Amino acid sequence: MINMIAALGRSALASVMEMGRSGIFLYHSLVALPAPRTNFPLLIRQLYSVGVQSMMIIIVSGLFIGMVISLQGYTILVDYGSEQAVGQMVALSLVRELSPVVTALLFAGRAGSALTAEIGLMKATEQLAGMEMIGVDPLRRIVAPRFWAGFISLPLLSMIFSVVGVWGGMLVGVEWLGIYEGSFWANMQASVDFGEDVLNGIIKAIVFGFVVTWIAVFQGYDCTPTSEGISKATTRTVVYSSLAVLGLDFLLTALMFGDL
Amino acid sequence: MRPLSLRRNVGQIIVQTMNLLDDILIHIEGLTFTRNDRDIFRDLSMQIPRGKVTAIMGPSGTGKTTLLKLIGGQLRPDAGSVIIDGQNVPRLGRSELFYLRERMGMLFQSGALFTDMSVFDNVAFPLRVHTQLPEQMVRDLVLIKLQSVGLRGAENLMPSELSGGMARRVALARAIALDPDLMMYDEPFTGQDPIAMGVLVKLIKSLNAFLAHTSIIVSHDIQETLSIADYIYLVADAKVLAHGTPEHLLGDELPQVKQFMQGLPDGPVPFHYPAADYLDSLMSTDVRR
């Protein structure tokens, strides 16, 4: 019994210490603005690697999710003669919920795991230690550009997801199922509010971008520098990010739309 | 503001000049470092003379690489001081530490080359980051450094295309790119064929002579290290076991020193890891799961 309580205490202490380390890590990474001359090209390279290279999976997923919502919405709404509202349904569910959440989950799986593995491997091969001994802070040179790239990319990817999703919904609803195109767009335009729906969706994506990228770069930097350690860190990135996104999504939704 | 900064600069110059007069570059006093409840170093003291090649030797697992990390500020000791040119490394702030490291070079056991950069860019990296030199001058300096390690022809290769010995020589060229005051070599001879080992021994010796810097070599390759070291510290059991010139240590009668220097398989440092009685273990019916 005593051993069990001690183990529980140790585990709790380890979690608190890990959270503390991640906070200090973030502070050191972001406390000083990176030198624009040297770090701007690094940021551009990371934006390409983290953002542009994630676009394909985001576009394809957005398209199919938009199409599925449209199809499902039509089968339900047509019974009530309200199939004209499919556009409204597709747009609201995408911009409010699905775009930021699904983009963040896909981003964690595609870019987050890659960031963790890359930084972890640099640690295992002593590249980070080598950089430190050259007098270059790896937190600013390696971590900061990757963090900012993730933070900037995710909201943009989420917007792309919404646009492609709405287009996919239109393809199914209007082109395939024959909903009148004017009603599809007019209902959407009338019901989607920029401030309440679009902006709130973007705020969610910004929060998710911050959290997912923070988890990914920290897990890479803090991992045990062995092949097993990197593998575990990569898994932790995906699991922690997914749980954080879903938990935060509920919290943010309650704050934004819950009228609490 | 100007007179104050002038006074501070003059003060720094005086301190640095006084430090240069000190024959000792690194003073390590009462160093204690613990990892997982195990003492790696207990009240360890040593002095690294300026401009000489000092070897830190000892059996595997005695914390030689850890000592280099403590000198370079990558680890912080539990107690004690590591003073380099008047600066106590464990007490330095993050930016001061990175500033001090610009005067250090370190050759890692793995080479630690940046895998996304070519050989040329690896060697150019410290020059591009820490100096404002024009690219033409960076190119010339990189070629000079690569020529000194015999790899000027490999400038366009990627690290994955290099052999282990070549990678270590490129890493050496990168480590000396800024002509550091202090060079630290972590097991430079491990895993090298006899030719590469001979090349590295010659390089370390000639670089130390030409660049007039202080070198610390962590190694357990006795012959190679004895051939270039001016002074040796033998570390074991969390403390300095013996120190002196190579000749002095070769003649030391202390059993542990004798065993290490002569490479005897058994002695005060046992060959076998502590275990239960051999016969008892063989006769036991316990099956490990």
Structural overview:
The complex is a heterodimer of chains A (260) and B (289). With 260 residues, chain A is mostly helical. Chain A has helices at residues 2-30, 36-51, 55-77, 86-124, 127-134, 138-176, 181-191, 194-222, 227-257. In chain A, helix 1 packs across helix 6, helix 3 runs antiparallel to helix 4 (86-124) and helix 8 runs antiparallel to helix 9 (227-257). Chain A starts with a helix and ends with a helix. The model of chain A has no long low-confidence stretch (mean pLDDT 91). Chain B has 289 residues and is of the alpha/beta class. In chain B, 41% of the residues lie in helices and 22% in strands. Chain B is built from eleven helices and ten strands. In chain B, the strands form two sheets. A six-stranded mixed beta sheet of chain B has the order 6-7-8-3-9-10, sandwiched between helices. A four-stranded antiparallel beta sheet of chain B has the order 2-1-4-5, covered by helices on one side. The longest helix of chain B is centred in the N-terminal third of the chain and has 20 residues, at 2-21. Residues 1-5 of chain B have low confidence and may be disordered. Classes of the chains: A mainly alpha (260), B alpha/beta (289). The A-B interface holds A 28, 38, 125-127, 129-137 and B 72, 74, 94, 98-102, 104-106, 108-110, 112-115, 125-126, 129-130, 171, 174.
